[in-house]
Amino acid sequence: MNTIIQHDVVIVGGGMVGLSLALALSKSGLVIALIDPQGKSHPVQAFQSRMQGTEFDARVSALTPASQQFLATLGVWESLSQLRVCAYTDMRVWDADGSGAIHFSADEIHVDCLGYIVENSLVSVVLAQALAGTGSVTLYQPDALLSFTRLTDAKGQLVTQITLASGQTLQSKLLIGADGANSRIRTEGGFATREWDYGQQALVTTVKTELPHQFTAWQRFMTTGPLAFLPLLQPGSTSQHYCSIVWSCIPELATELMALDDKAFAVRLERAFEARLGRIEAVAARHAFPLCQHHATNYVQAGIALVGDAAHVIHPLAGQGVNLGFADVMALAEIIQAAVARGEDFASLQVLSRYQRSRQSHNLGMMVVMEGFKRTFGSDNLALRWLRNTGLKIADQSAFLKQGLMKRAMGL
Ligand SMILES: Cc1cc2nc3c(=O)[nH]c(=O)nc-3n(C[C@H](O)[C@H](O)[C@H](O)COP(=O)(O)OP(=O)(O)OC[C@H]3O[C@@H](n4cnc5c(N)ncnc54)[C@H](O)[C@@H]3O)c2cc1C
């Protein structure tokens, strides 16, 4: 007969959010497991040989100083920064359809930088390596959650029984869905969501530019969607000529852009970016992702919690997705550990609701702001065009407003 393996906490999903949660809980004394379809070996050396020199991961994230602090607390920031991280000091945002523009600078708020551009796979590598080093979390990798059921155990306690693709069966007091935008925990758990389908795609790639990026994150808003250039830095080099781009656009345009050869794509990109960084000299492989925004109306039930993209997916235009996910992890890990220290049932609805209360309104607020940006900048309406251009100019001239915006975007 199949033995049932007991755990206190089972985390489903080993993306940046799930891995960081497992690491944050690794010293809690709880019996923890993490399940992910990816293999266990994420050695840094393999990453380095894959990403030699100028080959960058197409998926990058702009991390806020608050997320950087969190990764430092987990003990992984040092390894990450020694590998490949680009701190950016400035941000320039402008409207393609007018004269409105805003410039944020680290100098204005007396900080070293506004944030950091990191490659997602590199963040996962350092987190996975640190997690393996703890030896205190059981890794079911490569494996996947197939289904789960809620049961009452012999002591009358609510537990979740989990069936894995490998055929193994686990039981856990707390099941955590860190399984991304299409979370099975969320759908099978019957968590309702509010969804906004953007009818947009994000096209991502790495480009080499003629002019240096000046450690600046650039974003041009067009009615078809925003185009961002995010600065990258090669290890051991001061060259400022590589940027990761995120071009959010309507599906017809995305299909057209994906079909172009590199030379023709470079010309289109240069034009769309008003050649602010001169000629686009080289383009790496392009990838397209469908964009949507959703938010779970509840993040918790007794014995279940959702974190990261499983709970909320936000438009990438403000680069907040994984930052919100890390903030979820910080809150949930702290609440679970405080409950354990007080001898409370950490998987109870009462305890988990503290996590929901601490995060949900903040995440929703950020999503509403992004939705507003997307609608305002996606409109051809003359009145809205005037409003956004005037709004950008006023904000740019008001040190107080700008400082407030910067601090909020930095998670401070
Ligand atoms: C184009 C683009 C640009 C972005 N830029 C930024 C940015 O600049 N800054 C920012 O903060 N955010 C950004 N984001 C958002 C960010 O990428 C996401 O918020 C983040 O990756 C979510 O991490 P996660 O760990 O929650 O989910 P995921 O990364 O999706 O990880 C989920 C994990 O769960 C696993 N999984 C799924 N189902 C199962 C199962 N049944 N069993 C076991 N495991 C399972 C998957 O294999 C995966 O490893 C961007 C997003 C896009 C699309």
How would you portray this structure in words?
With 412 residues, this protein is of the alpha+beta class. Helix 1 (16-25) packs parallel to helix 5, helix 1 runs parallel beside helix 9 and helix 9 runs antiparallel to helix 10 (349-377). It has one domain: FAD/NAD(P)-binding domain, CATH 3.50.50. It is globular and about 70 Å long. The chain has twelve helices and 20 strands. Strand 1, helix 1 (16-25) and strand 2 (32-35) form a beta-alpha-beta unit. The protein has helices spanning 16-25, 44-50, 65-73, 77-83, 120-134, 184-188, 251-259, 262-272, 321-342, 349-377, 382-397, 399-409, and strands at 4-12, 32-35, 60-63, 85-88, 90-95, 101-105, 115-119, 137-140, 145-152, 158-164, 169-177, 193-209, 216-222, 225-232, 242-249, 280-283, 287-296, 300-301, 304-306, 312-313. The strands form three sheets. Strands 5, 6, 12, 13, 14, 15, 16, 17 and 20 form a nine-stranded mixed β-sheet that branches. Strands 1, 2, 8, 9, 10, 11, 18 and 19 form an eight-stranded mixed β-sheet that branches. It has a three-stranded antiparallel β-sheet with strand order 3-7-4. The chain starts with a strand and ends with a helix. The structure holds flavin-adenine dinucleotide. Flavin-adenine dinucleotide is lined by residues 12-18, 35-38, 61-62, 120, 144-145, 178-181, 184, 202, 204, 246, 289, 308-309, 316, 319-323, 325.
